[in-house]
Design a protein that fits this description.
Blueprint (H helix, E strand, L loop, with lengths): L3 E3 L5 E3 L33 H29 L2 E6 L6 H12 L5 E7 L4 H5 L6 E6 L12 H8 L9 E5 L16 E7 L6 H4 L1 H6 L2 E5 L11 H11 L4 E4 L8 H9 L1
Helix pairs in contact: 1-4, 2-8
Bound molecules: guanosine-5'-triphosphate and magnesium ion (MG).
Length: 264
């Protein structure tokens, strides 16, 4: 979204027209009002107002579709979770573990979001779940996130009335997916200990909007300098209310706690 950013109230604004007092919404982005107008080529941003209008229309359309998705899920009695993370944090591995743990207990559906390939979807097949693959590179502009119209498309390929739980693996990206309500009831993220303690501060939008953070790959802690207390303090700074589950999708540690959160 460049320097245009969406507020919690749904409005979109450009940083050229910042009002004082709104800086807490985007402290992760550079403050162009105060320095380095001479840095970089900003000539592409002359049409600010038009861009705002276009983005507001995109978000309005998305929110409308998200509402529609949620209504369809509610009508079928399906609880949906939007699972996000940077690439390789362990979403798919955690989902494999989750399907194993819930086999015979809950009827689970998966929407597998990727830019390209069926690699992740294939890993989730044969585990008694309905899997709907969504490649954003096939008709959705290769987007780096899922949005609600895409998920609506994927939902049409699932028998919702035969599901209890829908897990949506978003495209691996720590920024874009957080901006789009896909119509899920809860938002979850995986943060791997290999990514460093500073990520909640550097990518606050996603960390701020999730209900639970699965801190994954704790089996690697003996080999890393990762400071768990510092990570948790950084997370608390941007999102004091998030549940935290320390896990290893490899060894299975914490997976029961995650499954309990999901079922709850
Ligand atoms: N050591 C260790 N490796 C893990 C763990 N979880 C996942 N991995 C490995 O990390 C790599 C990436 O895992 P994925 O599950 O594919 O990650 P992802 O978030 O689905 O990746 P994208 O879909 O590309 O965004 C794989 O090689 C996994 O085997 C873990 O808890 N510990
Ligand atoms: Mg994956």
């Amino acid at each position: 979204m460049g320097r245009f950013h969406r507020h919690d109230d749904g409005t979109v604004h450009s940083h050229e027209h910042d009002e004082p007092g709104h800086h807490h919404h985007h402290e992760h982005e550079p403050d162009h009002a105060h320095h380095h107008d001479d840095v970089g080529d900003h000539s592409g941003y002359q049409t600010g107002l038009e861009r705002i209008e276009v983005l507001e229309a995109i978000f309005a359309e998305n929110d409308h579709a998200a509402l529609h998705n949620r209504e369809a899920l509610d009508a079928a009695g399906v609880a949906a979770v939007n699972l996000m993370s940077s690439p390789g944090s362990g979403k798919t591995t955690l989902l494999v573990r989750t399907l194993e743990a819930l086999a015979g207990k809950k009827r689970v559906g998966i929407v597998e979001g990727d830019i390209e390939t069926a690699l992740d979807a294939d890993k989730l097949r044969g585990l008694a779940a309905q899997v709907s693959l969504l490649n954003t590179g096939a008709g959705f502009g290769g987007e780096c996130h899922l949005d609600a119209p895409m998920v609506a498309h994927a939902l049409r390929k699932l028998r919702l009335d035969e599901l209890d739980l829908l897990l949506i693996e978003n495209v691996g990206n720590l920024v874009c997916p957080a901006e789009f309500d896909v119509g899920a009831h809860r938002r979850a993220m995986v943060a791997s200990v290999t990514e460093g303690e500073d990520k909640p501060l550097k990518y606050p939008v996603m960390f701020r909007t999730v209900d639970v953070v699965v801190v994954n790959k704790i089996d690697l802690l003996p080999y890393l300098d990762f400071d768990m207390e510092l990570f948790l303090a950084n997370l608390r700074q941007v999102n004091p209310g998030a549940a935290v589950i320390q896990a290893s999708a490899k060894t299975g540690a914490g997976v029961q706690e995650w499954v309990k959160w999901l079922v709850g």
